[in-house]
Design brief:
About 55% of the residues lie in helices and about 10% in strands. With about 425 residues, the chain is an alpha+beta fold. Strand 4 and strand 5 form a beta hairpin.
């Protein structure tokens, strides 16, 4: 067992040994239904839900570790890896926090802030945050490179401050929470139908061919609601309309609240305030509108899509479960048998409406061959729940199980043999 086993165990309400067994079985090629049905003795009787949760957690944690190692290798190759940075990267518990730590060091195309630094304006930006004794106008005049005007120097310093804010992990975390709590999902008619959505333009992928006409999305051409309360079917419909070019979609919190958080965070970084209100306000506005809002909006839309898809799968699963558990033999009680050899034959007593009344296990077949005990339990349960029919599945040992049931000759209360199907 390794550290990942223990992490997954804490998430999935299983022991580390169970997690290790599931991972080993899956690596050997076992599927979830196979492991749940035929490897119970190795997994400790874990059901399909827990097995899928374990495998999903393993996939997520494995990807996280692979990304962590890739970032460490990249920073080490570029001679940027300090002990403090390595420790922070190693301690990041989620992909989001890991990417926030790496963001200031990520290789990218040259930005406005990069050009300002190349022009020698980093000292001015630092002084605006740290020099408490001088007014900003004095700092600009004193630290302005000769080849730049005062206006250019002040604009460049603001660009550096804005980018510094945009890569601050603490600020991004606070704004993410604002998106969750106050983000509004809005949609409107696309300016030009059939054009690529922002998501497909950014990835270079082809816009999917529209499966629906514009009329399908008429209700969402002027729609707005809190994203956290939007039902899954509506979220998926709106996003589908955007992908097909019929709708434009946005997900943003109230701008005044976001600007307040960004501005407060900037002031928390410095004790130098006199006369800096205009510069800081402009830098905060630029950081939010140009850098933070687009990035965090993409994250929020991806999170909403994932949540909606998960909820939709849950609804489908619930409906399918109800369908599969509908009365299998009409409105009559049934005793259902799932054949098995080594692990026994699982049985379920179902009421006239398909409800589960009682479950159990019998062992009539080799290697156990407890035929007498199994026959007694089978007869008792049929009488107890007034079963009208015995249904035998077609799994391993199905024919042998059906033959056993017919040989037993279970009867109803009037002595009539129950039909076996």
């Amino acid at each position: 067992m390794n550290q990942i086993d223990h992490l997954i165990a804490n998430e999935c309400a299983a022991s580390a040994s169970q997690v290790a067994a599931v991972r080993a079985l899956y690596a050997e090629g076992g599927t979830v239904p196979f492991i749940a049905r035929y490897r119970k003795e190795r997994t400790g009787n874990l059901d399909e839900t827990v097995l899928r949760a374990i495998l999903a957690a393993e996939h997520r944690l494995t990807q996280l570790e692979e990304r962590r190692q890739a970032i460490l290798a990249n920073l080490g190759k570029r001679a940027l890896l300090t002990p403090e940075l390595e420790s922070a990267i190693g301690a990041a518990p989620t992909r989001t926090e890991l990417e926030d730590i790496y963001l200031p060091y990520k290789q990218r195309t040259k930005t406005r802030a990069d050009r300002a630094r190349e022009a020698g304006l980093q000292p001015l930006a630092d002084a605006l945050l740290t020099d408490t004794g001088a007014a900003p106008q004095e700092l600009v005049k004193r630290l302005c490179p000769p080849e730049l005007s005062v206006t250019q120097a002040e604009a460049g310093a603001r660009d550096i401050l804005a980018e510094t804010l945009s890569v601050d992990p603490e600020l991004r975390a606070r704004l993410r929470q604002l998106f969750v709590e106050q983000g509004a999902l809005a949609s409107s008619r696309a300016r030009k139908r059939g054009t690529q959505s922002a998501r497909h333009r950014s990835t270079g992928a082809e816009t999917p061919k529209p499966r629906h006409g514009a009329e399908t999305y008429r209700d969402y051409e002027a729609w707005r609601e809190p994203a956290r309360r939007a039902p899954s079917h509506r979220v998926l419909a709106i996003l589908r309309g955007a992908e097909e070019g019929h709708l434009s979609v946005s997900l943003k919190p109230p701008e005044p609240a976001a600007l307040r958080i960004v501005t407060e965070h900037l002031y928390r970084r410095t004790s130098a305030r006199n006369g800096r209100e205009a510069i800081f306000r402009t830098a905060a506005l630029d950081a939010w509108k140009r850098l933070l809002a687009p990035s965090l909006e993409r994250e929020a839309l991806a999170a909403v899509r994932t949540r909606a898809a998960t909820e939709a799968r849950g609804v489908f699963q619930k409906n399918l479960t109800a369908l599969l558990l509908a009365p299998p033999y009409g409105a009559r009680p049934v005793l259902a048998l799932d054949p098995g050899l080594r692990t026994g034959c699982k049985l379920a007593c179902l009421g006239a409406a398909g409800e589960v009344l009682e479950v159990g296990v019998i062992y009539p077949l080799p290697p156990h061959s407890r035929r007498s005990e199994s026959a007694d339990l089978l007869s008792r349960l049929c009488r107890k729940h007034a079963a009208a029919v015995i249904a035998v599945g077609d799994g391993t040992g199905g024919r042998e199980t059906e033959q056993f049931v017919r040989e037993v000759g279970v009867t109803d209360g009037e002595g009539t043999p129950l039909p076996v199907i």
